[in-house]
Amino acid sequence: FVKDPDSAYKILEVQDTASDDEIRKAYHKMAIKYHPDKVAHLGGDIQKAAKEKFQQLNNAYAEIKKHRGIK
């Protein structure tokens, strides 16, 4: 689980100065890109990597929301 907000921003590929809306948009863009269902046809290894990346995204977004007090 991502405990460092700086790491969370890096995972979402945004600066820590980004607005809440920019962070939300970055999360949604990356969540769509790395969603495991999007790569279901590409094989087990790629599905596993996508699932791990998707979990990292979710954890990073949750940490940023917690840190900033975003609901």
What is the radius of gyration computed over CA atoms, rounded to a whole number of angstroms?
A: 13 Å
Strand count: 0
Structural class: mainly alpha
Order of helices and strands: HHH
Mean pLDDT figure: 89
- What proportion strand? under 5%
Q: Which term fits the overall shape?
A: elongated
Give the % helix: 55-70%
Word description of this protein:
The protein has 71 residues and is mainly alpha-helical. Helices cover 68% and strands 0% of the residues. It has helices at 5-12, 20-34, 44-68. The longest helix has 25 residues, at 44-68. The model has no long low-confidence stretch (mean pLDDT 89).
Summarize the structure.
By secondary structure, the chain is mainly α.
What key phrases describe this protein's structure?
single chain, 71 residues, mainly alpha, 3 helices, 0% strand
Show the helix and strand layout.
Blueprint: H1 5-12, H2 20-34, H3 44-68
Helix pairs in contact: 1-3, 2-3
